[in-house]
Specification:
disordered N terminus; mainly alpha; 8 helices; two-stranded antiparallel ribbon; Serine Threonine Protein Phosphatase 5, Tetratricopeptide repeat; two-stranded antiparallel sheet
């Protein structure tokens, strides 16, 4: 059976760093070559050697572990996690413990802090005295707490933004409703004003029509009256003309002797009265004499 000695990977100030590994030692030439390349920090060449060894030893968990370490050095986290997960199923408790520890480091680099904490706990179950696993577990739990706190803050922020957006939407809806009500009221007021205007125009038109009819009636009555007056004047004129013609045609009759004397006396009295009035005016008397007939 292949024998191997492993050294831990330590986290310093939350930055994952690999200290030197004592990798799997084997008589397999590819494993020997891979370990030599790892010591020279030629990680690509080391990985190629371990993959060559894996073809000869596909079920060997030690080769999987060495391969996982090389992948870790290359920053290929997903591939490293697969290789270390295979090693963590080894029957060798020491190998399983180191595989869980380094798998936790890979998961920490991927910011999968919950998975990293679980891997460190598995490593501590296999080796409770592993101080590095305890320290890294605490770091992972701190990051997980920070992550949960940030997630909670983000959720609160989202909830607040959602509430603010709902409030803004409600205010916008209320404003739109008020604007619509205002527009409807203005429309109703305008329609009412238009109707009142139309009614007033109708009343004015009816009044004008009535005045026109009254004026026409008055004009007709006036024309009728003028016609009647003209006809009456024409009739009177005709009657006067007719009377004048009749008077000219009638012979003058002699006045009776007594009537003629009476008329002469009246004529003389009238002339005497006029003379007396003239005389009184010359004397300053303003009051006319009383008539004696």
């Amino acid at each position: 059976m292949l024998q191997a000695t492993y050294r831990s990977v330590a986290l310093v100030c939350c930055v994952l760093a690999l200290s030197g590994f004592e990798l799997l030692r084997s008589e397999n030439s590819d494993v020997v070559r891979g370990n030599r390349e790892m010591a020279a920090k030629k990680y690509e060449q080391a990985l190629a050697a371990y993959e060559a060894a894996q073809k000869d030893l596909p079920q060997d968990d030690g080769v999987a572990y060495n391969r996982g370490v090389a992948l870790y050095k290359l920053g290929r986290w997903d591939d490293a996690a697969k290789a270390l997960s295979q090693a963590s199923r080894s029957a060798d408790d020491s190998l399983r413990q180191r595989a869980f520890y380094n798998l936790g480091n890979v998961q920490f680099q991927k910011k999968a802090y919950a998975d990293a904490a679980a891997s460190y706990q598995q490593a501590l179950r296999l080796n409770p005295a592993d101080a590095a696993a305890k320290w890294n577990l605490e770091l992972a739990l701190r990051e997980l707490e920070k992550e949960e706190k940030k997630k909670k803050q983000d959720q609160q922020k989202q909830d607040q933004q959602k509430q603010d957006q709902q409030k803004q939407d409600q205010q916008k809806q209320d404003q739109q409703k008020q604007d619509q009500q205002k527009q409807d009221q203005q429309k109703q007021d305008q329609q009412k004003q238009d109707q009142q205007k139309q009614d007033q125009q109708k009343q004015d038109q009816q009044k004008q029509d009535q005045q026109k009819q009254d004026q026409q009636k008055q004009d007709q009555q006036k024309q009728g009256q003028q016609k009647q007056d003209q006809q009456k004047q024409d009739q009177q004129k005709q009657d006067q003309q007719k009377q004048g013609q009749q008077k000219q045609q009638q012979p003058q009759k002699a006045l009776p002797q007594g009537l003629k004397q009476t008329l002469d006396a009246l004529d003389r009295n009238d002339r005497d009265l006029q003379k007396r009035r003239l005389l009184m005016r010359h004397r300053g008397q303003r009051r006319p004499p009383r008539q004696d007939w």
